[in-house]
Design goal:
The protein is mostly beta strands. The protein has strands spanning 2-7, 12-16, 25-31, 41-50, 54-63, 73-79, 88-97, 100-109, 121-123, 128-130, 139-141, 146-148. It has one domain. The strands form 4 sheets. A 4-stranded mixed sheet has the order 2-1-3-6, with no helix packed on it. Strands 5-4-7-8 form a 4-stranded antiparallel sheet, with no helix packed on it. The relative contact order is 0.19.
């Protein structure tokens, strides 16, 4: 999980609160002082898998000027599931308010998921943790309505 903060005072973005667990969740916040007029505020973001260039997420949102002035104000969140661990993703973000816009890009490295057990080994070809013994295949038994080993 991480937070992307859109700062209307400084026309800038920042990334905060990066955590390994739930890394595929991005919370978007808007931050503005009381004297900033919020009118036709919106933002758009695309998340690009590097080095391939595949777009994982594309989001566009617009809010009217009646949004509360809470600081920071949670705008929403995005989840993406198809980023490869140990690769990088590029966040391209554009924010606009009162017909003014500003943009930035952030490259973030996607971590491996936490190791589930000490004996498991990372398989970098398929980007998963694997047990030292293959997972058993189960077969459905319709008569007993149970899963059984072959």
């Amino acid at each position: 999980m991480m937070d992307l903060i859109i700062d209307l005072d400084n026309h800038s973005f920042s990334v905060d609160n990066i955590k390994q667990e739930n890394f595929n969740v991005v919370n978007f916040y808007r931050k503005a002082s009381q004297d900033i007029e919020i009118k036709k505020f919106g933002f758009k973001v695309s998340v690009i898998q590097l080095p391939y260039g595949d777009e994982l997420v594309h989001l566009y949102t617009e809010n009217d000027s009646s949004d509360p002035k809470e600081n920071p104000f949670l705008l929403g969140k995005v989840e993406f599931y198809n980023a490869d661990p140990e690769s990088s993703v590029m966040f391209n973000v554009v924010a606009f308010n009162k017909r003014e816009s500003f943009e930035d890009s952030f490259e973030i490295k996607i971590p491996k998921p936490p190791k589930p057990y000490p004996s498991w080994v990372w398989n970098s070809e398929v980007n998963v943790w694997e047990s030292p013994v293959p997972k058993p295949v189960l077969i459905w038994d319709e008569d007993s309505q149970t899963w059984n080993l072959p």
